[in-house]
Every structure is written in structure tokens, then in C-alpha cells.
Amino acid sequence: KGGVIGITAVPNRLSNDPEQSIECVLDHYDYMVKLVGVDHVAIGTDASIGDMVEISRVMLGRTGPAPAPYLNGLESPADGKNIIRGLIVRGYSDEDIGKIAGRNALAFFRRIMG
Predict the structure, then answer these.
(1) Are 9 and 71 in contact (CB under 8 A)?
(2) CB atoms within 10 A of CB 31
(3) How far is residue 65's CA from residue 57's CA, in Å, rounded to a whole number?
(4) Which domain holds residue 85?
(5) CA pseudo-torsion sign 69, 5, 29, 46
(6) How far is CA 78 from CA 36, 66, 94, in A?
(7) What's the chain's Rg over C-alpha atoms?
(8) Nearest residue to 16 (alpha-carbon basis) of 62, 82, 79
(9) In this predicted model, what pLDDT tens digit does every residue of 10-42 receive, in sequence order?
(10) Which residue from 20, 37, 87, 114 has the fewest beta carbons nearer than 10 Å?
(11) Beta strands in the chain (DSSP E)
């Protein structure tokens, strides 16, 4: 209760589609906002380190085709702004985007750290 869920942008965590894109990430924002409310959702892209293709193979036990190496529209950290653009296109208000982009996480850390 009162937590924040960061939505990952790590390839192969949100879809099995070999042509993954930012749209599957944005779909998860929509889903989580509907499930827990906008006050409990945040950007959680910080796990995008290391060899994500190999990590996906090991964690998911994949033996078939190689997992997607990145998400179309989020090929590098510089493309993080595309998450905000996508939320705008999907009709999120400036207030809700501000919450998702950092205010929710800051409020959570203030609560737990005093």
C-alpha cells in the first residue's frame, strides 16, 4: 500500500514479439495506471544494463530465436524522451506525466526516508 511501480523498458520482459517497440512499454503504463492508479506508477528504465539478449536467454530459458536486442523507439538512453512523447500521444495530462516522470518516485522516497 502506498508503493510505486516502475515500468521497465528492458527488451523481452514485456513481450515475446521479436519486433518489440516502445508501444508495448506504453501499453504497460496504460495497464498499470488502470490497475493501481497514476499515483503509483513511475518510469523504471534503470535496469537496462549489461547484455540484455543473453540475460533474457538465461532468465527466460529461451532456446529458440534470439530475443529482441532493444525496443524500437528506445534504442538508447537518449530515447527516454520518447516515453513522455508516447504518454502525451495517449492523452495523459501534464499533471499525470509529471507524476509518472518523477514526482511519484520522489514522493515515495520522501515517505520512506523521512
Answers:
(1) yes
(2) 13
(3) 10
(4) 5-113
(5) negative
(6) 28, 24, 21
(7) 15
(8) 62
(9) 777 777 777 788 999 999 999 999 999 999 999
(10) 114
(11) 5-7, 41-43
* C-alpha cell at position 92: 495523459
Taking the C-alpha atoms of residue 6 and residue 9, their distance in angstroms, rounded to an integer, is 10
- Which grid coordinates belong to 77? 538512453
The residue type found at 99 is: K
CB 25 within 8 A of CB 83: yes
Q: CA 28 to CA 22: how far, in whole Å? A: 10
- Round to whole Å and give the CA distance between 3 and 40: 6
Core vs surface per residue 70-109: b (16+ CB within 10 A) or e: bbebbeeeebeebbeebbeeeebeeebbebbeeebbeebe
Query: Mind listing the pLDDT tens digit for each residue in 39-67?
Result: 999 998 765 555 555 655 665 665 555 55
Return the residue matching grid coordinates 506525466: 97
Q: How many residues does the chain have?
A: 114
Instruction: Report which residue type is found at 40.
Output: H
